[in-house]
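User: My instructor asked us to take a sequence, write out its structure as tokens, and then describe one feature of it. I'm not sure where to start. Here is the sequence I was given:
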Amino acid sequence: MTTLVTALAGCSLAPTYERPEAPVSAAYPTGEAYTQAGQSQGSGQGPVADIGWRDFYSDPLLQNLISMALTANRDLRVAALNVEEARAQYRIQRADLLPGVGVGGDGSVQRLPADLSSTGSSNITRSYQVGGTASWELDLFGRIRSLSDQALETYLAQDETRIATQLSLISETATAYLTLRADQELLSLTQSTLTSQQDSYQLTKQSYDAGVATELDLSQAEVSLRTAQRDLSTYTRLVAQARNALVLLVGQPLPDDVVAQLDQAKILPDGVVPESLPAGLPSDLLARRPDIRAAEHQLRAANAYIGAARAAFFPTISLTGSAGTASSSLGGLFDAGSGAWSFAPSITMPIFAGGSLWAGLDVAKVRKNIQIATYEQTIQTAFREVADALAGQGTYRTQIVAQQQLVAAYQRAYDLSRQRFDQGVDDYLSVLDSQRSLFAAQQVLVETRLSRLSNLITLYQVLGGGWTEKTVAAQDAGAAAAAQGGATSAVK
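Assistant: Let's start with the prediction itself. The structure tokens for your sequence are:
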């Protein structure tokens, strides 16, 4: 009998879980936009997800900022607390698999009136009892076990969400830092341009006062000067806002030494991240992306809940018992012969529930279908994010080279127009036009460099990078993946 009960207690009516097919291509897109990205895939590097963030971000100041963010950022703290809450909920649900045991005592005093007493006189009865109680639902059809599995998968999904939040935080901190550096470089460039525009305006005004330059020349010089002043205010504001965004991500006021280093950082560093990253295969995302793993855990939770909905159609068997001492007087509770016990098994069989059981099963199946669609959409979104980042990796480099050449061309045009103006060949209008074009091209160059770095940061994130601080060695990569995937067995 014991063997039979044990065997039945281990059964489950949940469907056998089968991972849905990934609704994406077996390889990332190819074409002209992915030429350089495709070349980097064969570089022989290890998986991007195994590159530690300290090894990916080479800037010491950025490493310090990321470390501070991982310690004090409130979004990450909330994600970690959500994991603790889900873990506690799982422990609560799992406790239902075990008998509940308690101890207690009670006493009662009752007076029966004479007209209700069989003896014709009133009497008072007393009773006292002390003992232990136990109750246990035999999980013969796996209802409680299915609910426990659902809670476990929900907990694991929350833990994966925490990892995804960490990856996003590292990426956002790096992007905010580089955005601040880019705005500082643009501010410095604008200050230099403003100084040049002020000198040009004064020179033009002197020429105008001497009757050499026209009023149109003076007006054009003033337009350039006021535009530079406007841009100076704009980039001053952007630098302040970028620093505020960085402080929010870090989650604490920046130390004085960090503030001093940021104040000295006037140029956007181009070599802060690797030039290219290997993409691997789309199938790698299933194991490397925490958001995909979280979606699969949610799907497993929905699959387990179907087992609980199915078990609701079957009888519920509960065992309740108590043992202790009982007496009509408080002093006789522990006398010889005062032992008392009770055993009350019960069985409840649903016969008619107005269709609620079938509706509950339908709800469980629909929820699973919703989770399947969510899981597949998560994979498709991940595929698109990687493909977009690869397209950026394959094109930003050539775009920057072309923009650098364009800046050089505008610089030559400005130098020539200035030379022709000094020689009296052209008017000052051509100098101002060349100067405005050069400044605009320089701005675009800085913004394009920032876009390239941000794209590499995004590629690192969407490939699953940032979950570890140090790079996982090739021989340890499999063990690390197994450790992540073995969290279920560890919790069980």
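For the description part of your assignment, you could build on this observation: DSSP finds 14 helices and four strands in the chain. Try explaining in your own words what that tells you about the chain.
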